[in-house]
Amino acid sequence: MHHTADSSLVHARSALFDLYGDHLRARGARAPVAALVQLLAPLGVHPPAVRTAVSRMVRQGWLEPVRIEGQPGYALTSRARRRLDDAAARIYRTAPDGTPVVTGSEGPGDWDRQWHLGILREVPNARRREQLASQLAFLGWAPLSDGAWVGLRNDAEVDQILGMEGIAADRFRAPVDDGAVEFARRVWRLDELGASYDAWLIEAKSLVDETGQESTDGNGDEQAFAVRSELVHEWRKFLFRDPGLPDELLPDDWAGTRAAEFFDFHAERLGPAAGRFVDNCLTLH
């Protein structure tokens, strides 16, 4: 029972992040509690789980309580806005001002052709290593060993993470040589990642096929919102796994490119109907 409650809370929390990042960020970054409950219902999240997840996100500094026309509601903190802007830029491969990034992959076009290395001065215990691993993976860094990491850019957020974790590291750069493609494939486990993209694509196609292509009435809007939310939710997981390598480091016929084209097309196609559903819920409350 405890496990079920835990997993429903994790689901509620990630659904809230998706909702704020995808829809509410552009609509004042705030919403009444009643609207949050109504918006998460089509995603199978029950009201108690919404309220518990919201409380937890307030404690963690992602949301803050506000009054909206006399009703209780929650707004994103500035820290949460920064994180969601960064996530949105990577999900939709756009620059912070919303313009598309013109590269063949999620990687930025301005790679300096250097490996960026971080060597920890002492190896932390397994629990702290795991915590560090998930935070660094989000920034595209990969472990070379328990105490060494490699990334593609000199990211200031890496220093912030190490500082917050109280972990000292020496930072180096190394020029890229002829073995770069094979090195990247091994270190970032690109064979596994490519297989995950292929598996995602099969599931995403069946999800989209089930819903049909047209969505005209209000019920269709809710369905478009639910399907698009499911697509975004699963796609967002790749942010923690895909380092956004430049094209020159990726295998030929990279599965991530095919998956990204499918995601882009359907996220955009379902966007207007999903947005209408969100607007309706916000108007009602």
Automatic annotation (TrEMBL):
InterPro entries referenced in this protein's UniProt entry, alphabetically: PaaX-like_central, PaaX-like_N, PaaX_C, PaaX_trns_reg, WH-like_DNA-bd_sf
Domain of life: Bacteria
Residues covered by the Transcriptional repressor PaaX-like N-terminal domain: 12-79
Transcriptional repressor PaaX-like C-terminal domain segment(s): 188-279
Transcriptional repressor PaaX-like central Cas2-like domain residues: 110-167
Pfam families reported in the protein's UniProt record: PaaX (PF07848), PaaX_C (PF08223), PaaX_M (PF20803)
Single Gene Ontology BP annotation: DNA-templated transcription
The protein's name: PaaX family transcriptional regulator
Source organism: Kribbella rubisoli
